[in-house]
Amino acid sequence: MIEERFDAIVVGAGPSGNAAAYTMAKEGLKVLQLERGEYPGSKNVQGAILYANALEKLIPDFREDAPLERHIIEQRIWTMDDKSYVGMHYRSEDFNEERPNRYTIIRAQFDKWFSRKVREAGATLLCETTVKELLRDAKGKVIGVRTDRDNGVAFADVVILGEGVNGLVGQRSGLRSELKPDSVALAVKEMHFLPREVIESRFNLKDNEGVVIEAMGTITAGMTGTAFLYTNQESISVGIGCIVSDFAENGATPYGLLEAFKNHPSIKPLLANSECKEYAAHLIPEGGYNSIPELYGDGWIVVGDAGQFVNAVHREGSNLAMTTGRIAGETVVWLKRRREELSKANLAEYKRRLDETFVMKDLKKYRRIPAFLHNNKHVFGLYPKLVAAAAQTWFRVDGADKLSKEKEILKSFRKGRTLSGLIGDAFKLARSWR
Amino acid sequence: MHIVVCMKQVPDSAQIRVHPVTNTIMRQGVPTIINPYDLFALEEAMRWRDKFKGALTVLTMGPPMAEDSLRKALTFGADRAVLLTDRFFAGSDTLATSFALASALEKISTEFGAPAMIFTGKQTIDGDTAQVGPGIAKRLGLNQLTYVSRIVELDQAADKIVVERRAEGGVQILSTRLPVLITMLEGVNEIRRGTLDDALRAARAKIITWNAADAGITDLTLCGLRGSPTIVKKVFAPSPRAEKAHKIPTADVPVELLAENVISEIFKRQPAVEGDLMKFSAGQ
């Protein structure tokens, strides 16, 4: 048992736990951070894109020494059928700014850096230490944690759970129910290594410019999901993910989907002659607003993936994790300064502050999207096919007049989905998007 | 009782690759670990430390980042960690390494008390020489017990230690007097996890860091590349001996016959294998 009492124990050294620990340690709180992995980042998987804003709010000058890969100057959004893609690309010189907005990163390196900052701020980090359960006093208030080490008990005024998507501590301690298969995605990714010059010529880049591709369509075999391809300095991250209940129903394998995606005629040339040196898989909480569990109680707060803070529509997660971690930390610092108890009533301040941020506002805005996608699988199969066919009809010059082409395209949509279906989808999507 | 464990931070050889063109080892990005053989030495040392309520110091020579390994040893339960680091040590072979470590051990003796036992792993996984431990023993005039699989008896009052040593064709039972240098064999114990208190202590511990002068070394010509008579003539990755490989075609073989087909093909080409296997299964 650790005799010494801490102001806060943070479970996990990912983006949310690090943000919380950093915020509190910087303000002089005594913080103990516990990480089950061999080093911070060893258990973490992400595409990965870093959104600068959330990190800037913690470490304004992070660009000076953080391990960043490429800043993103071009975003490609593709809908794909088996042979083609229809894309919307946005590339702008404006993204070559002094303080770029988005970067590709490699999490194993980035998390180590972030953790170093946390320790420099004064937090104590113990790795290879798994928290098994929360300890409570007679009144049910959380007063500490029990770890898997011998004499493994430590006490604190508050426990911040940044334990990641599985949230086993919270589950075991009765703070939330088990993850539902229809609100979590399983994603797999590979790192393909290529010389820097090859990547730059293949994607039309210079210096540290980067491109990201987000794709949907028949590549997910009718399941709710997306694929991605991100350029790093000397590697390309490529991956695909779908909702777990869809995998169970469909019988498709994640690696099978990834193989097919890599071999798609639009993707294959981008990866040609590369060497795959790393593969990983991870769960992503994609249930959105309606699947957010209890976020605070007597002596505890939930942050990051454990709180289902992922905006699946915009592929945002780590920024929500950092923001929720920061706000949890700020709330604890604020209560401590006022010598208030870290009770459920007082920690409600965390939720109040969160409601004022983009985190809750965005998740609330898209709260109907998961159900919409779940019930409208043709979005991932039929529409990409129709769009690709329409593009082909439109662009192929074959002697047919343009009016006939327009009519043919309209007819193909009405045949594929009926007029009322089309209008219904548009209406439902608009309503979910609102 | 004071015990010292000498250990080394090594690249994780399971993850090392050889550059296909230059034939050099690609160290970049390869994670480092405590030499796995040293963990058996550390655990053995901790068991005797616990038994005699003594103190355990871990010592390593290496670049500043070798501190990670020392901190890990503290997490397992070591009491004190000393890092010997100096650019003058760069390029040391086993002769120069054992000189530097022996010097540091003398300094440890005066600072923290003379060790009754010094442990090392039987060898490292990067150099694989098994020379540094015996080199230290020779320089410090210690009795040396190499390839030890078990410490049978340790009687401090009678100044006596009895160990089992793996030797070719059998086990030797050896007895000698303290102080002693022991190189531990693999697989004789399992490193403990360390308590939560150990982990906390390790996270906050200050690693004692010495350069050559701190360790009392005055003659720098005995250190590093200058103090190393060993010359590496060539480094190469053995090429796969493709000319000896036979391809067994399996495309037209039905699945249920596949295993049998491959085995009979092997026996056809290597009749001795079949004989050996028969003898082996008869003996079982």
TrEMBL record, chain A:
One of its GO terms (molecular function) is FAD binding. The keyword Oxidoreductase applies. The keyword Flavoprotein applies. Keywords: FAD, Flavoprotein, Oxidoreductase. SUPFAM superfamilies: FAD-linked reductases, C-terminal domain, FAD/NAD(P)-binding domain. Residues 370-434 form the FixC-like C-terminal domain. It comes from the Bacteria. PANTHER family: ELECTRON TRANSFER FLAVOPROTEIN-QUINONE OXIDOREDUCTASE YDIS-RELATED. Belongs to the ETF-QO/FixC family. This is Protein FixC. It comes from Methylocapsa palsarum.
Automatic annotation (TrEMBL), chain B:
Keywords: Electron transport, Transport. Signal peptide: none annotated. SUPFAM superfamilies: Adenine nucleotide alpha hydrolases-like. It comes from the Bacteria. The keyword Cell inner membrane does not apply. The keyword Electron transport applies. Pfam families: ETF. One of its GO terms (molecular function) is electron transfer activity. Residues 22-219 form the Electron transfer flavoprotein alpha/beta-subunit N-terminal domain. InterPro entries: ET-Flavoprotein_bsu_CS, ETF_a/b_N, ETF_b, ETF_beta_N, Rossmann-like_a/b/a_fold. Belongs to the ETF beta-subunit/FixA family. May play a role in a redox process involved in nitrogen fixation. FixA and FixB form a heterodimer. This is Protein FixA. It comes from Methylocapsa palsarum.
